[in-house]
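Suppose you are handed a protein chain with no further information: no name, no annotation, nothing but its sequence. What can you learn? This example shows the usual starting point.
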Amino acid sequence: MEQSQPISLDDILSAFRTMDGVYKRDMVEAALQRREEIVPRLIAILEEAVADPDRFLEEDDRFDHVYAVVLLRHFRAAEAHPVIVAAFSLPEKQVDYLFGDMITEDLPTILLHTCGGSISALRAMILDPKVLDFCRASALQAIVYAVAEGYVPRQEIIELAGTLFTGSETQEGSDFWSFAAEILSFLQPREIMPVIEQAYENGLIYEDLISLEDFESVLSLSPEEAMEGLKRHLEKNSPKDIHASISSWACFRGDNDLMAPAGPADLFGSGLYGDWASKSAGKKAQTQKKKKRKQAKAAKRKNRR
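A reasonable first move is to predict its three-dimensional structure. Written in structure tokens, the prediction is:
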């Protein structure tokens, strides 16, 4: 009886390259058994995407970069962190098409579990106005998670947070400040509450995402309770079973309405991450709301005069 030939790295990566609606479970399992060999190849795929993202956009069914980032998260591959940060720092059109809902649902733990305990690249990402605001918010979530992991002192993140609500961090009408406020609430930011309260007064924080009353509820917890809640949140959003995590995506559930066009933004489905991302109802819905929010902010300012 002939023995079956082992699956080659080229076979694995070839299977990952094209989205055909079928989850490549066997190939993912084969990749899991060959970490040392496959990590450099996965990094090379992301390097290619960063160097020539338009080429990936031209290939509507290109998908190997998606398998790459979830596998690199699972491997906790710190050597991949620089190229992952670079990939999610691409211009809006490119990063949105390449990664879609991963930006708000999976990116925080992708960044955390590949950072190797260093948040320097994430700090730079948060402060870079050229990076998509949703990616910046996910980087902020990652460094808040880093506090729970013991990678960085809470006070260091609070000091950074105190600089994020001046109103000049991004364009007017962005939800960046609202996301930042909700994310930072996990750390009970008592020291910078005057800054956050001023941000509400200035119309930067959208109260439907998080209100001052929500902050009061968080601040009423003990520090131990708040940290335990953060650790539970991190655990919930750090998939242990990579097969269950990926196979649950809408693109692998046979929903034909979600299969065209093939861009990841239209394929992933929601619910993997939740909280601030789900409340935002996605980037497209937020764009539609901006005009109404600006009008509401103008009315609030008028009423305060």
